[in-house]
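Quick entry between incubations.
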Amino acid sequence: MNAKLFSITLALCFIFFQPIWAVEPDEILVNPNLEHRAREISKNIRCVVCQNEPIDSSNSGVARDLRILIRERLLNGDTDDQVYNFLVQRYGEFVLFKPRFKPSTYLLWFMPFLLFIFGLLIVVRVLKKSSGTSVPEGVYFTSEEILEIEKKINNGDRGN
Amino acid sequence: MKRVLFIFPLIVALGIGLFSVWGLSGDRNPSDIPSALIGKAIPNFKLETIMTEGISELSNNDLAKLEKITVVNFFASWCLPCKLEHSSLKKLNSSYDIQLVGISYKDKKSDTSNWLSELGNPYHVVGLDISGRTGIEWGISGVPETFLINKKGEIIYNFAGPLLGKNLAHFENILRLELNKKQ
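Done. Structure below.
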């Protein structure tokens, strides 16, 4: 009996307590294609009020205004780039979660590759050095010494 | 060469350490974002005005025509810091030869006029941005937010937050510098 009650309660929980999304029903566009683009754009736009949250999940007033504005622009035939440009002109590059690829961000984008090459150079250098110095010149054993070593090994000496 | 390699990690660690000290100390606020509009012209907008005699509409062209240094202040009656800032704006208006423009952000017309009647109206022009779209054009993140515009119609300074204490002093310094410029 208790198990039944529990499962009913659990089921009711799922029916009545849907996850809360910041995007409100009145914002959603009828055209699923445009709505999808709007969602993708708003996931990459930083909310200027709560700065580590995208406007897609932010509940601030400005975020809602921007979500509606993005949808309006898409309905008017803007491309994704045009929407991004509109926002960047007003709020700066800061609002983009993914920085653009341009001269001022080259260092940012190329840094991982530069560091990789730097690391590779160090590895190559170290390997080269170690292979080159394992048998230094002029310290080879003389033939007499080799004979002596062989004798010791044959005698079962393990060196001490 | 070996010696240089040996102290290399130390130098890197020191660099990271110094960067952290810089990042954590002083008055640096990482959430302060410079306005994207600095050095640019006044953004396009057109608003209905209230409590302004002789002007029923306020647009970017009207602001560009002003022969004075202009201070544009976004405010709202629902915003408590704006109430704190109000006396600063009155002081700015009486102490300097400026044009003070107020833009009421996402507020009801009646609430704005009640608020200004009660606290006094320091603005020469008050525009109503009921939808908040003009606020987006100016790239504001909230209210209060204040812009300083030179005689050429370029935005030269922006401050997000109430103009009080040292922020007000800093704003006045920039304003005085601009007023003393001979053009």
